[in-house]
Specification:
Helix 9 links the parallel strand 4 and strand 5 (240-244). 37% of the residues lie in helices and 11% in strands. The chain folds into 2 domains: 86-340, 3-Layer(aba) Sandwich (Aspartate Aminotransferase, domain 2), CATH 3.40.640; 351-473, Aspartate Aminotransferase, domain 1 (Alpha-Beta Complex). The chain is globular. The chain has 482 residues and is an alpha/beta fold. Helix 13 (344-365) packs parallel to helix 16 (433-452). A 7-stranded mixed β-sheet has the order 1-7-6-5-4-2-3, sandwiched between helices.
């Protein structure tokens, strides 16, 4: 099941003097009056290639990519689900794609209606009262959410609330966002079952607490079954409950976070609503909140007034803009198209299939890769290499590299941090049973190789253009020059 090696030459290495594709004369070059001191003394060193050489080169590079279009992409926590092509067609419609961002509201009714309806559908789905679609990503949404919290407490005259409680099972961006906002982060360790310790939380809550940032389900793939008691404790202390919505794909259509007691939550449209991941282009996020936080939302939002859609700039309590205009509307069009394609019942089935797929993988691999939790997981499972591979000196990184040779992108590794040698797998609902069986077979094959010939697995990958790197040096002293 090992893939064949591929040509790894750079374009400059394929260059030959005099080769070129179509040549066009540039009459402006002779007319350009560039000062002599700014003119090149020699032509730039660029690859000289025929047109078909260029086409073949970039086509080959595209085939080297691991992507959701070409491979199973089981990144836990990142939710690399398939991006339906009808989303792209919708976003490419001229009325959306060609609209000038400075166009007046009267000329933008279609886009404004879409943004209004998307916001309305989302708040209904989440059990929230208001929303902003401005943020450009999930982490940007977190930043926006804590801006809301800060403005809310300042408006109440409670500037002393400067602490953010973050469980160790939260997404890694949570403490980073709190720190960026100038808050003090208070960490709480999970109980042995992976859930937040409610009694320990009550001890940490106090007059300085502003927000509890809670990931539901958490990064261990476990639902916080004490969520109602957690919400009550937070509210009794006068603080806000922020729900990290990065794992909403496990809850969508099954439960409304607002009903669980969340005051606000963020959305990652690429994780739950099938838009491309930020690395593949512009991203989009959102913050949905209850009514008491609505006045502080970024502006403009969209409201319906007299049968038309208009920009609403709120009042002086707004935190202002966090992104130009209404955000990355092209991405939001894709998310709206995805929502229109699924009823509320079907969205619930999406979550159920995501949960089923994760538990299927965990059940098929538990004899070789022990799971962190002995109970059913949500949409992602956390496994480990197990004591037999550990005895051979095999680490999670070796398993990940071995999967590359077998045609699979690696799962998330070494996260969550509280699990030693973690392997975090999220199949998503879009993968078939056949694909999952192939992945399970590859994981079992990796285990067999690691048991029989540990060094062979430590040498992986052997079929990729780039072999095993010194990752510490690559991170600290990157050399991107050829």
């Amino acid at each position: 099941m090992i893939c064949a090696p591929t040509d790894s030459k750079l374009s400059i290495e394929k260059s030959a003097p005099g080769r070129r594709g179509l040549f066009c004369k540039n009459p402006l070059r002779a007319k350009a009056k560039v000062p002599a001191n700014l003119r090149r003394k020699a032509a730039p060193r660029l690859p000289e290639l025929a047109e078909f050489d260029v086409v073949r080169h970039y086509t080959r590079l595209s085939r080297l990519n691991f992507s959701v279009d070409t491979h199973f992409y089981p990144l836990g926590s990142c939710t690399m689900k398939y991006n339906p092509r009808f989303n792209e067609e919708a976003a490419g419609l001229e009325g959306f794609a060609a609209l000038h961002p400075l166009a007046h509201d009267t000329c933008s009714q279609g886009t404004l209606e879409l943004l209004h309806e998307l916001g309305s559908r989302l708040t209904g789905l989440l059990g929230m009262d208001a929303i902003t679609l401005q943020p450009a990503a999930g982490a940007h949404s977190e930043f926006t959410g804590l801006l809301l919290a800060k403005a809310y407490f300042e408006d109440k005259g409670q500037k002393e609330r400067n602490e953010i409680i973050v469980p160790d099972s939260a997404h890694g961006t949570n403490p980073a966002t709190a720190s960026m906002m100038g808050f003090t982060t208070v960490n709480i360790a999970s109980k042995s079952d992976g859930r937040l310790d409610v009694e320990e939380l009550k001890k940490r809550l106090g007059p300085k607490t502003a927000v509890l940032m809670l990931t539901v389900p958490n990064t261990l793939g476990i639902f916080e079954s004490n969520i109602e008691a957690i919400a009550k404790a937070v509210h009794d202390a006068g603080a806000l409950l922020y729900m990290d919505g990065a794992n909403l794909n496990a809850l969508i259509g099954l439960v409304k976070p607002g009903d669980l007691g969340a005051d606000m939550m963020h959305l990652n449209f690429h994780k739950t609503f099938s838009t491309p991941h930020g690395g593949g282009g512009p991203g989009a996020g959102a913050i949905a909140c209850r009514a008491h936080l609505a006045p502080f939302l970024p502006v403009p939002t969209v409201k319906k007034e007299g049968g038309r859609y208009v920009s609403d700039f709120g009042d002086k309590r707004t935190i202002g803009k966090v992104k130009a205009f209404f955000g990355n509307t092209g991405v939001l069009v894709k998310a709206y198209a995805y929502m229109l394609a699924h009823s509320a019942k079907e969205l619930g089935e999406i979550a159920e299939c995501a949960i089923l797929n994760a538990n299927y993988v965990a059940a098929k691999l538990k004899d070789l890769y022990p799971p962190y939790s002995k109970e059913y997981c949500m949409h992602e499972c956390v496994l480990t290499p197990g004591p037999d591979l550990a005895a051979k000196g095999i680490k999670t990184l070796d398993v990940a590299k071995g999967l590359l040779d077998r045609g699979f992108h690696a799962p998330t590794v070494y996260f969550p941090l509280i699990v030693h040698e973690a392997i975090m797998i999220e199949p998503t609902e879009t993968e078939s049973r056949e694909t999952l069986d192939e992945f399970v077979a590859a994981m079992r094959d990796v285990h067999a190789e690691g048991s029989a010939d540990p060094q062979a697995l430590k040498d992986a990958p052997v079929t990729q253009p780039v072999k095993r790197l010194d990752e510490v040096q690559a991170a600290r002293q990157p050399n991107l020059r050829w």
